[in-house]
Amino acid sequence: MKTIASLTAAAITALMLTTAAEAASPQAPAATVTSVAVQTADTAMVVSHGYAHLRKDPNTKSPILATLKKGTKVDVIEKMPGGKWAHVKANNQEGYVALSLLKAA
Question: DSSP 3-state assignment of 25?
Fold first, then answer.
């Protein structure tokens, strides 16, 4: 089960503005944001290396669901915290690909 909350850019901006306003008030509690996945508007990217593994989970020990060839288009659903992995959909399969293996379409 995933415990990572996805926020849109507008929600992140609203959170930042709210946090800044609260910080100006001495009675306001401090806001804390830990890990947040950044949800995208299905950004199209392509595999930029010879191949990329589509994995079940965002780590290199996770099972490989498919091997995507260079130039394969993927739709990025969200970028994971830490900026190393993207949750993508490619060829009717969802999984995770290392962001370092992708480039803008």
Answer: coil
